[in-house]
Amino acid sequence: MTGAYLNRIATAVPDFDVHSKFVDFVPRLLHDRRDRMLFRRMAGRSQINHRYSFLEPDPDPDRMDTAGFYRENDFPDTQARMAFFERHAFTLARRALDQLENESGLRATTHLIITTCTGFYAPGVDHQIIQHYGMSPNVERTTVGFMGCYAAINALKLARHIVRSEPQSQVLVLNLELCTLHLQPSDSLEEMLSFLIFSDGCAASIVSAETKGMELLGFNSTVVPETADQITWRIGQTAFDMNLSGRVPATIAANLPGALDQILGDCTRADIRHWAIHPGGRTVLDAVREGAQLDEEQLSASREVLRRYGNMSSATIMFVLQRIMAEQREPGAGCAMAFGPGVTVESCRFALS
Fold it and tell me: How far is the C-alpha of 60 from the C-alpha of 66, rounded, in Å?
């Protein structure tokens, strides 16, 4: 049967680095002095140096951003956040797609898959892409919505199915997230620590039968029983409401060893030369290191993406895969892994040629 290959990946982020501003501003939302001190301490241990957004930080210490999007006692409602997403989503998509256009052209695209969990409108980004890049109006479009951080792996899975059944296909996959639109005014330390890691980013990639890049060998999905309350993401009146429990790292560390045989298929851990782990946060990577018995070198690409960009939800794992491809590492087997609501572990086995 025809093989499917992840040929190229391009990535992009907005202009404004908001991490330092966020760390300085958020303590004023926490009323408890101990919580403020703990937040600053945890921010210093987050292993995140930069996170990007379309919201420009305001030099005024009393204001979060120059547009006044986040005001201390007047945060925007869901409608305003979705309007902001609609204004900026295609701009970020083009930053990534233009890189692929320069390399190979996008008019040969037969299928377009978009993942996002941070904003929706219709006609959407898919229509804008087809029109702007002069693609055929017959391009088949699929949106993978609201699956969270592991959605990119589901998109690659779908792209592989398409190429294996229609070998002449060229599948364009776009992972687009504006996570910084969903900051909530909360006095909960746990909520503020979850907002601390998220940022905006976009990845665009091409999957086809061309024997170039990474061969996508197989996929696995594992849902950890009785963990549905640990990661939730719902549309609320004033924003998308996220719950990211502090129990998630322990859940991953405890359950990953029993899931590894299924995740790796006919490979052993020793067979895997390349590990692409979704950097959901420092403690998530620590949990994977413990649960899969990896060493720090095997997590280097994931740690670097976390440090430079934070967690961009579905786009993040593609940044890690791009880094592995760009570093021209030795050929060999690889495993990509991401985590999200469920708690679900989505994984992909690949071969780097």
Answer: 9
Of 188, 208, 228, the last residue of a domain is 208
Same structural domain, 204 and 172: yes
How does DSSP classify residue 133? Answer: T
pLDDT tens digits for 264-278? 998 899 999 999 999
Give the count of domains, the chain.
2
pTM over 0.90, yes/no: yes
Consecutive H or E run containing 96: helix 78-103
**Which residues lie across from 240 on neighbouring strands?**
235
Report the interhelical angle of 282-292 vs 300-309 (nearest 10°). Answer: 170
Structure tokens at 183: 């900051």
Which residue in the block uniquely carries the two structure tokens 């609201």?
A: 146
What's the CATH number where 77 sits? 3.40.47.10
Task: With beta carbons less than 8 A apart as the criterion, state whether 223 and 14 touch.
Answer: no
Domain hosting residue 163, numbered range:
5-208
Give the model confidence (pLDDT) of 181-203 as tens digits. 999 888 888 888 889 999 999 99
Angle, alpha carbons 348-314-8 (nearest 5°): 65
Task: Please indicate, yes or no, whether residues 111 and 130 belong to a single structural domain of this protein.
Answer: yes
Please state, in angstroms and as integers, the Cα–Cα distance from residue 151 to each residue in 70, 144, 195, 209, 210, following that order. 28, 7, 19, 22, 24
Last residue within a domain, chosen from 182, 208, 234? 208
84 and 202 inside one domain: yes
d(CA 279, CA 306): 6
